[in-house]
Amino acid sequence: MEGSVIKQTPSQMKRNLLIPFFALLVSVLLFSCVKDTDFSQAENITLTPVVELDLIFFNLEASAFYDAIADTSILTVRDTTEIRFLDDSGTQESLKRAEFLFNFTNSIPRTFEVTFQFLDEMDVETYAASTSVAAGTELAPVLTQFIENVEGEDITQLTLANKVIVSVTIPSSDENLQGLLNLQSKTTYYLEIKERS
Amino acid sequence: MRIISILLMAFGLTGAMAQNKQILYGLKEVPQALMLNPGVDVPQKAHFGIPFFSQIHLNAGATGVTTFDIFGTSNVDINTRIRNKIFEMDANDFFTATQQLEIINFGWRNEKEIYFSGGVYQEFDFVTYFPKDLAILAWEGNRDYLDYQFDLGEVSATADLLTVYHFGANKQINKKWTVGARAKLYSSILSARSVNNSGTFVTRLSDQNGPNIYEHQVENADVKVQTSGITSLENSSVGKVIGRAFFGGNMGLGLDVGATYKINANWTASASLLDLGLIFHAKDVEQYHATGSYTLNGIELLFPPLGEGDEAIPYYSDLEDEIEREVPIDTINSSYSQWRPLKTNASVRYSFGKFLGGQECDCLNQGIEREQAVGLQYYSIVRPKGIQMAATLFYERRLWSFLQAKATYTVDPYSFYNIGLGASADFGKFNFYVAADNIVYYGNIAKAKSVSLQLGFNIKIAQE
After folding, report:
1. Model pTM?
2. CA distance B24 to chain A (A)
3. Are the C-beta atoms of residues B423 and B436 closer than 8 Å to each other?
4. How far is B401 from A17, CA to CA, in rounded Å?
5. How many cross-chain Cβ pairs, A to B, lie less than 8 Å apart?
6. Distance between CA atoms of B279 and B251, rounded to whole angstroms?
7. Half-sphere exposure (CA, 13 Å, Cβ side) for B379?
8. What is the rounded distance in angstroms from the CA atom of residue B368 to the CA atom of residue B262?
9. Rounded distance, CA B289 to CA B226, Å?
């Protein structure tokens, strides 16, 4: 039996190879894909920064609790400051917990009651905290540390406020009272920032 | 958050290094090779790109991270993966995206053997470095980073949308040299950049005499954002923006130069400099510049004796005013100029194999045409934090008289495993080319750190 010989001209060869070549290139490009990925995970992306920030500070002289002109005691002194970022919608959404640290250093020989009232824009109280500060002496000032941890439902209340009134109350005072009540404070904000629908 | 995820996806999906067209460089069968080296050896007599389809270029890349790293299916929580990546990457890692669309491209050879070419293309180019410190601050907060100086200078990003009009000439001046140059007129549509920033932010415990528990310090901040074409965007129509794409935007001038040198029968060297130019931003410019130092200690209460109806001291507003005074953010409308990202290409090429056209050596006419070539290419681009480089090893082969193919292996900041493939086919006067790199990742682009693709259609008229 005679064997058959298939002859190809160079140009036929070109055509035979051309199709597979382009098919390969096109298929590589067309069938390129993204596999084993799950973009819905983006919904779970959550930033959880913990931010340390100074709050307020003051230095109250004992003389602030006595009106030398009227010759009367001033048993409570007050001051107010706005904290505008507290009721910001971003804070309201993302703040999960706030931990306040108040460090009192007292060299006045009296105890103090200190309250922190948080008020909203309409001056309605939304959250409050208070503490007693131990008496000290000028030679031996006493440190009182007060930590207020706010979370859960309370945090919602706290973030409705945009100002704080600080009231410092002394049980009694006289013109000879000496010393200084110092406050230093900071807040640790625990945030949870994510896409919310 | 949505923006972050979209950006991450975009970087992973669309994606060699932005603007590096290593496959097309030196591939003279593609008329667009002239765009990469005005001094390339031009074989054809004339060409005309199919309008809007003569070159489509897409490129995206990220060093240090892939889409798969973040969004791959895994048992590890996505937040853990992001956190690990933030700490793994450094401030020299970057994300880029480039897109180019040729609107028209044409060229012809005159009687004096000068090849003139011209055209219009649109370009979008974006690069941002990874501001690691700010990412840590956003992700973790400052509690665990007391005394750590967060570097504000890591912010470095540019974004440009522009139209480029170009016209150039190319000529083989003797047996050895082919040279070319191209003038470019840039019309910037939108531009935003924030580069050369400096300054630090640190939170530290106050010393004993400090007024409060912490000191939050911004030191020697010098942060600038320059924009042009953006502020008027809010009040303008689409028509206006399109208008700027023509000659209505901020104009600039640039130059491309290149040359090819035939060393001997086998060896050829070439080099080009692209986008040696400036854009002058004068219209619709807004620059923001924050400078200064400031230490925040919180709010000091003074307990002033107030009567009924007295106004309380506006501590908070005073604090805001003080910060604005100490670290003012100036808005400047003065014009500024901006260098285009200068690109450099260079190559050496060794040709071998069968002579094409059946002649032993047609040295007098078009030089030596061999079937195969191997070589080395170098590419660099000037970016805000310095020069980014890439090196490419290539193999080029004429498969058939109408089909030229090129394979590349590129080492760049993205990876050591970038293999690219390209082909240029001539069907009569009709030319089609396609080039793609990181080809091994086309099975799953999510795993690629970068992807680059160019394709286009031209009409080519061969030399008689």
Report:
1. 0.81
2. 16
3. no
4. 13
5. 167
6. 6
7. 24
8. 9
9. 8
- Which element (helix H / strand E) includes B106? strand B94-109
CB pair distance less than 8 Å for A55 and B2: no
Provide the residue type at A55 as one letter. Answer: L
Positive or negative, the Cα torsion across B26, B27, B29, B34? Answer: negative
Q: Which residues contact A177 (CB under 8 A, 6 or more apart)?
A: A62, A63, A65, A66, A108, A109, A110
Q: What is the pLDDT of residues B354-409, one digit of tens each?
A: 887 655 544 444 455 788 999 999 999 998 888 889 999 999 999 888 899 999 99
Q: What is the CATH number of domain B2-461?
A: 2.40.160
Distance CA B386, CA B384 (A): 6
Q: φ and ψ at B308, to 5 degrees?
A: -55, 130
ipTM above 0.85, yes or no: no
Tokens found for residue B188 = 């910037």
List, in order of start, the domains of chain A with CATH numbers: 10-41 (no CATH), 45-194 (2.60.120.660)
The closest CB to that of A29, out of B140, B214, B442, belongs to B442
Please provide residue B57's backbone torsions phi and psi, each rounded to the nearest 5 degrees.
-125, 125
| Secondary structure class of B24 (helix, strand, coil) | coil
Structure tokens at B246: 């023509």
- Shortest distance, CA B310 to any CA of chain A (angstroms): 12
As a whole number of angstroms, the distance between CA B230 and CA B246 comes to 16
Using the Cβ of A41 and the Cβ atoms of chain B, whether some distance falls under 8 Å is answered with yes
Q: Per-residue pLDDT tens for B221-253?
A: 999 999 998 877 766 666 666 666 666 679 999
Q: What CA–CA distance (Å, rounded) separates B262 from B362?
A: 14
Cβ contact A35:B443 at 8 Å: yes
- Contacts of B411-416 with C-beta under 8 Å, sequence gap 24+, read B412/B16, B412/B17, B412/B20, B412/B379, B412/B388, B412/B450, B413/B17, B413/B63, B413/B94, B413/B388, B413/B389, B414/B16, B414/B17, B414/B61, B414/B62, B414/B63, B414/B449, B414/B450, B415/B449, B415/B450
